[in-house]
Write a structure and sequence with these properties.
heterodimer, A: 298 residues, alpha/beta, Rossmann fold, 2 domains, 6-stranded mixed β-sheet, 10 helices, elongated, B: 334 residues, alpha+beta, 4-stranded antiparallel β-sheet, 12 helices, 6 strands
Chain lengths: 298, 334
């Protein structure tokens, strides 16, 4: 089956700034992928490139089997929700529902109405006067009503309070469960996405640090805790992600290439947050040569 | 798409329709009064065989309404600023382009329908205002023969349609390039005004070669050979020694002029005679080698040709601006 998203060395440069550098990722269909990275890592740029709202300056991108293009059938398969929740602020939700009906061949009007009524959001109130959370819900409902095959959500929960955040993600998971939809949603907070997602794209400093199934990635990584000693042998056999050395103790985060057989070290499993922070911390450190772009199949 | 355009512009449409309706009522009422005033005056002067002088004795219309008529010259610019300026710029500014362009409608179709409707509406509104003004002005045109003069030419006939479409296209294009509504509006006003002035002051008189009439000082009826009807006087002056045409050109200088030529540039001996009337002044000029006076003008018969040429120029400019807009919208990032 063609992956929902496949990019190869995808890059986007603005005049002097490189927003995304040689990103190679694959997202299989039917996954909910967490696009995680610190602010300014290139998450928005990647999503806009996938949506066809921005053009790449290098590399290739295939979305649902073809490069993003200006074609009604392709656009119908995509749902994109930008970070700033762009809706016509002076229009009501009802207006937006009508616009969606006029502008889409496939349009599930009943779905929007059902969702918004369920959330108690008045349909004939200007969206500019709704709360940030309500507006995000309206925008998500409108995006879902297109019945897209790929949903790209840029920081959809950033403007929401914790309760609304949970509600939003629950609704999203529910919507995905009903279909074979693929979702990529970005956040700079791991905790937001841990429960909902089964796939991870980790971006830092415009580069892809990790991309793959979350369970597989967690199984591949391990934390080693041991005395302060030379770790050259471990670094040779495995890929060192992060090392924290104190006077007495060494803590290593490694990507395993096989079993670890150094009896001096205790092993521990890695949590998603720990993994993400490990890669982000590594990136902040002085060893950029260690950074590798790792696709799922590699 | 059409529904979206209507939803986005319906408030402006209501305002414009209300303004047009009020303007129409005012013009219909005062226009009918003025027409009957003119007919009555014609009947009276025909009875007393004094119609030749009617243009100097009859004042038609109410000065306030006349002023309002003159002010319709800004209608195309207003349409450009308020309809054209925000058309693309507002979508970029508020980010709604990311909403609109992610529906199942290509950017090309989005642009064609939006721009198409607005251009059509601008042309229709410009045309409706112009049609009312032209109808209202018909007695004045018949009396004063001024409708080929820039101030009237610009607000009557078909040119306002071209101006309106151009202004809207200009607003759309600057908004697309700048991605900001307010600067786009300001630049639209500036560029539109500048271009209109350049074309009406400088270029328009050259659409066709102006006709020249010269009259000799030796034949007494110096002004007898003037053209008739609503002609447009482009320039005038004196035919100097050796047949050279002397005219003040388009920049009037200060001081006293004789047929558009500053008196200071005439032979000193004749200058004093200028105030004693033509009987001694013209023979003096003739004695110094001056042959007569001339005018260049565009005859009344060319009025509609000029209207057509000018409308064509502005429609072509509008098309070029829309092409620029399309190139930017289709190629640039949202």
């Amino acid at each position: 089956m063609t992956p929902a998203i496949e990019t190869r060395r995808l890059s986007k440069r603005f005049r002097r700034v490189t927003a995304l550098s040689e990103a190679t990722i694959t997202v299989p269909q039917g996954r909910i992928s967490a696009l995680i990275g610190p602010n300014g890592a290139g998450k928005t740029t990647l999503l806009r490139l996938l949506a066809g709202l921005a053009r790449p300056t290098g590399g290739d991108v295939a979305v649902l089997g073809s490069p993003p293009r200006q074609d009604p059938a392709f656009l119908a398969d995509l749902g994109f929700l930008a970070q700033e929740i762009p809706l016509y602020r002076r229009f009501t939700s009802e207006d937006h529902i009508r616009i969606g009906g006029h502008l889409n061949s496939r349009w599930d009007e009943a779905l929007v109405r059902r969702r918004l009524q369920g959330l108690g959001i008045p349909l004939n109130q200007r969206v500019g006067t709704l709360s940030g959370g309500q507006r995000a819900q309206v925008a998500l409902a409108l995006t879902l009503a297109k019945r897209p095959r790929l949903l790209l959500l840029d920081e959809p929960v950033a403007s929401l309070d914790p309760l609304a955040r949970r509600q939003f993600l629950a609704h999203l998971a529910e919507a995905v469960a009903d279909s074979d939809l693929t979702v990529v949603l970005s956040s700079h907070l791991v905790a937001d996405l841990e429960r909902t997602c089964d796939h991870l794209i980790l971006l830092a400093a415009s580069q892809v640090q990790l991309c793959g199934d979350i369970d597989t990635l967690l199984a591949e990584h391990q934390v080693l805790i041991g005395p302060r000693k030379d770790t050259t042998a471990i670094e040779r056999d495995h890929t060192l992600v992060q090392a924290v050395r104190t006077a007495r103790q060494t803590t290593l985060l490694i990507r395993r290439s096989g079993p670890v057989i150094d009896p001096a070290f205790q092993t521990a499993d890695v949590g998603l947050e720990e993994l993400v922070l490990g890669y982000m911390g590594q990136n902040a450190g002085p060893a950029p040569a260690q950074l590798t772009t790792i696709g799922e199949d590699q | 798409m059409t529904w979206l355009v209507w939803r986005q512009y319906r408030n402006q449409a209501y305002v414009a329709a209300a303004a047009l309706a009020a303007f129409a009522v005012l013009l219909l009422v005062t226009g009918r009064q003025m027409a009957s005033q003119y007919r009555t005056a014609l009947t009276l002067c025909a009875a007393s065989h004094s119609c030749g002088n009617l243009a100097n004795t009859l004042t038609l219309g109410n000065p306030v309404v006349s002023l309002l008529i003159t002010l319709t010259v800004v209608v195309p610019c207003l349409l450009g600023v308020f309809w054209g300026g925000p058309l693309v710029a507002r979508e970029f500014e508020t980010g709604t382009s990311q909403f609109a362009w992610m529906q199942s409608v290509t950017r090309r179709r989005w642009l064609i329908i939006k721009v198409g409707w607005i251009l059509l509406a601008a042309g229709a509104w410009g045309g409706a205002v112009s049609a009312l003004v032209t109808w209202w002005s018909s007695p004045v045109n018949a009396l004063q023969h001024q409708n080929f003069q820039p101030a009237q030419f610009d607000i009557q006939g078909i040119v306002p349609v071209g101006y309106a479409m151009f202004a809207v296209a200009l607003g759309i294009a600057t908004g697309t390039l700048l991605r900001r509504t307010l600067p786009a509006m300001a630049i639209t006003i500036g560029v539109f005004t500048f271009l209109r002035l350049v074309i009406s002051e400088d270029l328009r008189s050259r659409y066709m070669t102006a006709l020249t009439i010269t009259s000799s000082f030796l034949h007494r009826g110096h002004h007898s050979a003037m053209p008739t009807g609503s002609y447009w006087l482009v320039s005038q002056g004196l035919v100097g020694p050796g047949g050279k045409l002397l005219s003040a050109g388009s920049q009037p200088s200060s001081g006293i002029h004789v047929d558009g030529v500053p008196i200071a540039s005439l032979p000193r001996a004749c200058q004093a005679l200028a105030f004693q009337g033509p009987r001694s002044f013209f023979p003096c000029l003739a004695a110094h080698g001056y042959r007569g006076s001339f005018i260049t003008y565009q005859p009344a018969s060319r009025y509609w040709a000029f209207q057509g040429i000018e409308t064509g120029i502005f429609v072509l400019l509008a098309v070029a601006l829309i092409a620029v807009t399309a190139a930017v919208v289709l190629r640039r990032d949202a």
